[in-house]
UniProtKB/TrEMBL annotation:
Region (Disordered): 140-169
Natural source organism: Erythrobacter ani
Protein name according to UniProt: OstA family protein
Highest taxon of the lineage: Bacteria
InterPro entries: LPS_export_LptA, OstA-like_N
Coiled coil: none
Occurrences of domain Organic solvent tolerance-like N-terminal (ranges): 35-138
Listed transmembrane segments: none
Keywords: Signal
Entry-linked PANTHER family: LIPOPOLYSACCHARIDE EXPORT SYSTEM PROTEIN LPTA
Length: 169
């Protein structure tokens, strides 16, 4: 039993390195965007981007069908939050996370993804309902449900699932 626990911990630690890699980027770097269209809602301090949206920051790329960017305007525009919906993909190097929705909270330096979340690094996979990446501490977590409620997400039925390759001699 103890050996099985140790193996599980080692496997989970390996996929955790994936999220650690995403977590090690510069959250103060400039943000660039590319979209099919953009709508500035100046009075609400927000921008809506749509049509194959791509946002990048220091090697971290977020892609989705639509993004809502909330900002403050105190003489310069400061992004507060990006909410991405529709086929969301977050990548950095060879690491990739996908889900239905992602929220990048710039103040808290946290990315939260929900809805059939999948992490990929090489042939290793990790699937669940929600992924939280704390970019400041480097701690990431995956749980089986997209929210704190009792409903199941996707095909994982509220569980975290995955597969990991085993080194061959």
């Amino acid at each position: 039993m103890a050996g099985g626990f140790a193996l599980t911990a080692a496997i989970a630690g390996d996929i955790g390195l994936q999220a650690q890699g995403i977590a090690s980027h510069n959250t103060n770097a400039p943000v660039t965007y590319d979209a099919g269209s953009i709508e500035l809602q100046d009075r609400q301090n927000r921008v809506t981007l749509s049509g194959g949206v791509i946002v990048t920051q220091a090697g971290l790329t977020v892609r989705s069908n639509r993004m809502l960017v909330n900002f403050t305007d105190d003489g310069s525009l400061d992004i507060q939050r990006i909410t991405a919906t529709g086929g969301v993909t977050v990548t950095r190097g060879n690491e990739r996370a996908t889900g239905g929705v992602a929220i990048y909270d710039f103040n808290r330096r946290i990315i939260t993804m929900a809805g059939d979340v999948s992490l990929r690094r090489g042939s290793d996979t990790l699937n669940g309902g929600r992924l939280v990446i704390d970019l400041q501490s480097g701690v990431s977590s995956v749980d089986g449900r997209a929210s704190g409620g009792s409903g199941a997400s996707g095909t994982s039925e509220g569980r975290v699932t995955g597969s990991f390759s085993v080194p061959q001699d």
